[in-house]
Design a protein that fits this description.
The chain is of the alpha/beta class. The chain has helices at 17-24, 37-49, 61-72, 86-89, 94-99, 115-121, 151-164, 175-182, 186-190, 216-229, 237-249, 254-269, 295-302, 327-347, and strands at residues 5-6, 54-58, 77-82, 102-106, 131-138, 168-172, 195-199, 210-214, 275-276, 283-287, 307-308, 310-311, 316-320. A seven-stranded mixed β-sheet has the order 2-8-7-6-5-3-4, sandwiched between helices. A four-stranded antiparallel β-sheet has the order 9-10-13-12. A two-stranded parallel ribbon has the order 1-11. It binds pyridoxal-5'-phosphate (PLP). The site of pyridoxal-5'-phosphate has 12 residues, from α3.
């Protein structure tokens, strides 16, 4: 089923004709042997963008994250991340299944943990204890509502991590949203991290692709894991061309997604029984408890209008704006929500 306004996730975008044209026109070669000029162009450009020495192209963000864990940790190490993070919740426990790495979940509002919380989680050097092996921060926070880690918040964690000899990985699935919303460059955000990944399938609108960036030695080691995991490709320039197209055309326009998210939040907040969380980027989290509807029933009530959101809790939903959502879709969504509530009231 295709939805007119699919707010389920910013992964729901479909490549445009122009992006597909760029893929068809790509100059290609054998990526596994370093012979694909388009992949080379993409990784050089991303290393630059992220302020790192080198970068490697992979099919998905999940592969980029696990390659960082495999490269930076040893079996028996402990990975520290927020309890709502993607790495701890949506990657099939890959840290333990593939890297032999234990995990430790930290709390904190909006997907962000404090330096104090992190300090308390750092392990002392003691052979009875796991070794703190990696700290992961998510920019922007997904289940935290699209919140942005400020440079001060990141640097406080990074200072403690460096002092303890613990590397930091930035899960930058939506780093470009953070950058466009704050005016802070991706390289500045990433400067605190030893490795950073950027996703092309979220707001940037490509059908696949991610890059992992770090220093040269780290990326060389990550390449070995890419090979082991089966992530080395052949004529991957057709994929990289979509990602380059996204960097050229779909970054600045993220500001429109943020405007649309704010408009949506404003419209929804005016409806009876809906509580909306603050919007920082392209995500709107809404609690519908006051309508008497469950999140599932509220979402179902949107479907006849061609609108869908994602369920995040008994009465909590998430709506994500993206390339395929325009201002008219925002109005459609607000009207659909109003109708879903009115239908419930009519039944009561
Ligand atoms: C989507 C996402 C990922 C994983 O990306 P895939 O390309 O779906 O594997 C990682 N982290 C965050 C925060 C995400 O939202």
């Amino acid at each position: 089923m295709r939805y007119q306004a699919d707010l389920y996730s910013d992964t729901k975008t479909r490549p445009t004709a122009q992006m597909l044209d760029a893929m068809v026109a790509a100059d290609i070669g054998d990526e596994q042997h370093g012979e694909d000029p388009t992949v080379d162009r993409l990784v050089e450009r991303c290393a630059d963008l992220l302020g790192k020495e080198a970068a490697v192209f992979v099919p998905s963000g999940t592969m980029a994250n696990i390659m960082a864990t495999l490269t930076l940790c040893r079996p028996g190490d402990e990975l520290v991340a927020h309890e709502q993070s993607h790495v701890l919740n949506f990657e099939g426990a890959n840290a333990s299944a593939l890297a032999g790495v234990a995990t430790r979940a930290l709390r904190g509002a909006r997907g962000i943990f404090t330096a104090g919380e992190f300090r308390g989680a750092l392990r002392k050097p003691d052979r009875h204890l796991p070794r703190s092996g990696l700290v992961v921060i998510e920019q922007t926070t997904n289940l935290g509502g699209g919140a942005i880690w400020s440079p001060d918040e990141i640097s406080a964690i990074s200072a403690l991590a460096r002092e303890a000899g613990v590397p930091m990985h930035m899960d930058g699935a939506r780093l470009m949203n953070a950058s466009v919303a704050s005016g802070i460059s991706p390289a500045d955000f990433a400067s605190f991290a030893d490795s950073v990944y950027l996703d092309f399938t979220k707001g940037l609108g490509a059908p696949f692709g991610a890059v992992l960036a770090g220093d040269k030695a780290m990326i060389d080691a990550a390449w070995r894991w890419k090979q082991r995991l089966g992530g080395s490709m052949r004529q991957a320039g057709v994929m990289a061309a979509a990602c380059l197209y996204a960097l050229d055309n779909n970054v600045d326009r993220l500001a429109l997604d943020h405007d649309n998210a704010r408009e949506l939040a404003k419209g929804l907040a005016e409806l009876p029984g809906i509580e909306v969380q603050p919007v920082e980027t392209n995500m709107v989290f809404l609690d519908v408890a006051g309508t008497g509807l469950t999140a599932i029933d509220f979402d179902r009530g949107l479907w006849p209008s061609g609108v869908r959101m994602s369920i995040q809790g008994p009465t909590l939903l998430r709506a994500v704006t993206h390339l395929d959502i325009g201002p008219a879709d925002i109005q459609t969504t607000i009207e659909a929500a109003s109708r879903a509530i009115a239908n419930k009231e009519a039944q009561a």
